[in-house]
Every structure is written in C-alpha cells, then in structure tokens.
Design goal:
Layout lengths: L7 H76 L1
Length: 84
C-alpha cells in the first residue's frame, strides 16, 4: 500500500469515516421516519377524540335541558299539590 497518489493515505482513512457517517445518517433517517409515523398515530387519535368530545358536548347539552325540564315539571306538580 502506497500513500502516494491523489489522496494517498487520507483517502484510505476517510472511507471508513464516510461509511460510519452514512450508517449514522441511515439510522437517523429511520428514527425520523418512526417519529413521523408515531406522530401520525397520535394526531389521528387526537382528532378522533376531539370528534367524540364534540358529539358528547352536543348530547350533554340536550341532556341538561331534559333534566331541567323534568325538575321544573316536578316542582310545578309539588307547588300545585301544596296550593290545593
């Protein structure tokens, strides 16, 4: 092995470094892809929960009105019974 020529010894020493960098970047890309996939799952789950919460909020509002109506009717019946 001769260290003369273009690059010489430095070119031989830099190839393993480049290989290590490429491997590290490949692992980072895999990590980024995994994080993006996980974020997509969390976003979809959050969106579904918001839709469910909105539906429950609408149902809950109607339920409160029905409960107040029943309480008002019972109160009215009690007042009529006391008055007569």
């Amino acid at each position: 092995m001769s260290s003369s020529g273009p690059g010489g010894l430095w070119s031989l020493l830099s190839f393993p470094s480049v290989e290590l960098l490429v491997d590290a970047q490949g692992e980072q890309m895999d990590d980024i892809e995994l994080n993006v996939a996980n974020a997509r799952v969390y976003i979809n789950g959050g969106t579904n929960r918001l839709i469910y919460a909105n539906a429950m909020k609408k149902k809950g509002g109607y339920l409160v009105y029905w409960i107040w109506a029943v309480v008002a009717i019972l109160l009215l019946i009690c007042i009529i019974k006391i008055a007569t």
